[in-house]
Amino acid sequence: MRSVVLLLLGAQLAYAGTHSLKYVYTGVSRGIDFPEFTAVGLVDEGQFYYFDSNIKQAVPKTEWIRQNEGADYWDRETQNMVGYHQNFKDSIQILKERFNQSAGVHTWQVMYGCELNDDGTTQGYYQYAYDGADFVSLDKSTLTWTAANPEAVITKHKWEALAVAEQNKGYLENTCIEWLKKYVAYGKDTLERKVSPQVSLLQKDPSSPVTCHATGFYPSGVTITWQKNGQDHDEDVDLGELLPNEDGSFQRMSTLNVGPDEWKNNRFSCVVEHQDKTIRKTEDDIITNFDSVPIAIIVGAVAAVVLVIVIGVVGYLVYQRKKGFKPVSASDDGSNSSART
């Protein structure tokens, strides 16, 4: 059985002044212990909706959607997702034949959504991937599809002949924005809250790198930088991915890889900026004994990793060998259930 890994999407993050609605659908061919089809819905990068082909039911993931949409909504979404499951199975089979593949685990994925800015401007996108590599993406301005490889050109021509782009543009500029506004109104107290990060400097032992860990903040826009003797320091820095916490807040880490002598001979500090607050931590704040790390930090980190792996929040399933993919009703669903590859 070929291995499959989960990658985080490094795009379309929701920052202050912007609200976003995003869906990620993943179809997987048989042969691994994972649902054949999963669908994840996110508002402002927080998951509110989930479906997979094992449970065969669309389910709420936040209180605000659970309290505001009833059984009719979830029954309708479940019916839609059952249809998409079959569509994705058919698409994988078509693409296997097109790529002359007879065996192995294969994936067909779409990420689509819209953003609404404070000034009223909007953005929208549709991006498809096969086996973890770009396949086609929507050029909304020209109502055409951009093909990433020769096999995708067939799909490009087919969808352009069917005017799929026009349908998707209408969804992104109208239906998607309308539902985003509705969801933000549902979850206003949660989605428009502002919570400052808890910041810690962590070090396993005196010779190890130092990690600046910010957690518990909302919204997701945060900047973590290092300074050396009062000046910005960009060398030897590894910035980690933005991760969700179980409570809907976020966390991020930045690691400074310098030796003990350099720490001793210089004054380093970690600067975390979130909303209008700046938090600075220096060598005096380093926690060097992991047994002393606050349990909330450990639990939050573990919960975030589990959430990403198990649920697939802002993630794609791709092959280990192809892990370079980065994405360039009364239902609010806007995917192409009838469009074949």
Automatic annotation (TrEMBL):
One Pfam family matching this protein: C1-set
SMART domains: IGc1 (SM00407)
Record keywords: Glycoprotein, Membrane, Signal, Transmembrane, Transmembrane helix
GO cellular component terms, semicolon-separated: external side of plasma membrane; extracellular space
InterPro entries, per database record: Ig-like_dom, Ig-like_dom_sf, Ig-like_fold, Ig_C1-set, MHC_class-I_related, MHC_I-like_Ag-recog, MHC_I-like_Ag-recog_sf, MHC_I/II-like_Ag-recog
Record's signal peptide: 1-16
Sequence intervals crossing the membrane: 295-319
Ig-like domain sequence ranges: 197-288
Highest taxon of the lineage: Eukaryota
Gene Ontology BP, a term: immune response
Record carries keyword Membrane: yes
Family of this protein: Belongs to the MHC class I family.
Entry protein name: MHC class I antigen
UniProt lineage: Eukaryota, Metazoa, Chordata, Craniata, Vertebrata
